């Protein structure tokens, strides 16, 4: 009668109070213990390794890298989370952002516009391409009942092939290497970085503010609009949504379009803040990282922000391990354990909460009225 | 519907098959009691089934037939009582135990894989092996042919299940159970999905089976069918066995009365508030294609302002479909007019906006989002009402204030409007739904089982709210399995059976016999 495990996993169910904080912290500690055991088993010094990682990860240069990585991770996880909140599994964020970044880079390199309009145009193109690519899966699901999991995975593969073809059509050689990429975007289309961290010459992506804005927009859309209400209602109980007059098919298409549009933003901080061109070595796989981080953050914009920062910290601090002859894959193990244990911790916390809530309600009712209620809590 | 077959011939048929069987007990249940939290599903049930008989168990939906069969098939364990099969006491932990004791069940909804052949479906889960690994299809085919011929089932093992009709699929289900060695078959509502001539074929097959010594327990609430096929009948009412009757010496009317109970509540004396202004007009509402069994067949009804129209009927006869068609959740043919305006092509949300309130049958699935706070549940289904939204935005303050109003006005017992709906008791959840659906001055209220599973206090409160709203001019379509509720609230009763409205009564003068026979399809004139 209560929510399903998937509901709780995907954060469609509310979890509040101190447990919502304690659960992930305990899970991360647990992951630390597991990682320590793995380190000890492989004959590496446990404490030294962990302190080396923390030392390295807290240097100014690393902090900038962490912020920059976290920016892209955050956008990716938000794109995934929007679908998750409606019970839609957009596994295709990966293909959506790569295709979007490629087309946006090509358009940005081909035109020259006055400063504020040039990057805005590039960002809009990226969103449109991402939305269109995700929209294919949405329309297929709404009209033909095709599972979005299957169609988005297939669209990922198609995006890879299509991207390779388009890049070959549009590309120019990248100066000083045998790499090829789209023509570089002119200075008017670039978003300058910021010197946020003292002690490092590296710059933080200017589009970090875009990520923050998208996070706020995500919260506003979901929690204060009718559309968001319909979306959450559909995610929590499709049967109730249908009976209440929500047009579920239309919601599927809209949610995929928005999720894809957000996915289109993932490549933008890198494209407009550092590389200025989409080349063969444009970072792949961010869409899948986004799925893990969305789970870590329970599809909540604030939770995802912490998840993205943690993930980025682990990625960056892994770089030092190679110098100490320790396999950097130890971090991959840690990331995997964190996701698993966070999921389990949330589940335990949820069970504790729902029992506590029902007890609280019946206790307060018994306290308020002198006649205690003798009914089952949920009948 | 069986227009042929007066009771005389049926009785003859029944007595013939009685003669062919020996008097030996196949299944005996004694003092079976099963409790679920808050309800007793079965109370002190006693049942004796003779070997080689078709033993019918009849009772209204919710009378406890399904629970009893689940106990016999090992899906539930009784809290008290004893089960004996062929004389020896048994304890079933799983259906597997029941199968090895020779008991097989044919479910109402077929459990067959469409894209496999009949043969593959039958052996699925008990595949004969050849040389350790390979499947021995030849042996299986031979065995299926043997069973099919022995019992006259006429099943071809090599056709795909998707290519065969409903009647044949049912025979495949029966064959599947026989293949596993069952000598006692439980058939759960086997005729529910069949058209009349398929029912006749099924009955011939059943007679073939008992001639070969198979025992059949036949669950149904269609009395004419039961009288036609059964050798013995047990009636269940409110969780317990109330009568053991011989089909030769009972009429459909008597059986109906046993099922429904002999006392009907007398409607309260009250002034009629029925006006001559039509609130809802439904004409020719039909669901189901030509040639198939129609779940809703040419339903026409009118509800006036201030009128409560009650729909009586055994569950599963089209009530849920009627409600969903009027709400626009399920596509249907026919026309629907609300207060003079045709709404046939409108979406569900538009119909709700136009003034249809809806208390769904299953509040957990359709009426509430259990894991959302009460005030968010206030918005559900009313996403265009002024108190809930301002344009594109959710009017959080308005919705919360209005939830508070409902909580107070409808006496929803809750510590606050921020608790999750799942934390409330069933009665309080339902009061919240009733309050929500009465908001915004609806023109029509569709109330499907509005007091099911709620405590007595909440039930009385909900009835009061319905009466008050009716006096204020609300039109109500009331669907209920509770005869107290139907007769106590309705101004007029219609009876639905197999998707058609078959009879109508004035609740002030209706007799239990009339209602019982109309609801169970016994007797045509009603």
Compact description:
By secondary structure, chain A is mainly alpha-helical. Chain A has helices at residues 5-9, 18-41, 46-57, 60-85, 93-110, 117-144, 148-170, 208-224, 226-236, 238-243, 248-264, 268-275, 286-296, 301-317, 329-368; strands at 172-173, 180-181. Chain A has a two-stranded antiparallel ribbon.
Description:
- Chain A is built from 15 helices and two strands.
- Chain A is mainly α.
- The longest helix of chain A is centred in the C-terminal third of the chain and has 40 residues.
- Chain B is an alpha/beta fold.
- Chain B has four domains: 174 residues, 3-Layer(aba) Sandwich (Rossmann fold), CATH 3.40.50; 71 residues, no CATH class; 160 residues, 3-Layer(aba) Sandwich (Rossmann fold), CATH 3.40.50; 73 residues, no CATH class.
- Chain B is 34% helix and 25% strand.
- Chain B contains 18 helices and 24 strands.
- In chain B, the strands form six sheets. Chain B has a six-stranded mixed sheet with strand order 6-9-10-3-11-12, with helices on both faces. In chain B, strands 18-21-22-15-23-24 form a six-stranded mixed sheet, with helices on both faces.
- In chain B, a hairpin with a 2-residue loop joins strand 16 and strand 17.
- Chain B is globular, with a radius of gyration of 26 Å.
- The two termini of chain B are 13 Å apart.
- Chains A and B meet through helix 9, helix 10 and helix 15 of A and helix 11, helix 12, strand 20 and helix 15 of B.
**Biggest sheet of chain A, in brief?**
2 strands, antiparallel
| Oligomeric status | heterodimer
Radius of gyration of chain A: 23 Å
Distance between the termini of chain B: 13 Å
Main beta sheet of chain B: 6 strands, mixed
Question: Structural class given helices, strands, pairing of chain A?
Answer: mainly alpha
Number of domains of chain A: 1
User: Largest interface by residue count?
Assistant: A-B, 42 and 49 residues
The helix content of chain B, as a percent range, equals 25-40%
- Measured as a percent range, the helix fraction of chain A is 55-70%
Q: What is the overall pLDDT average of chain A?
A: 88
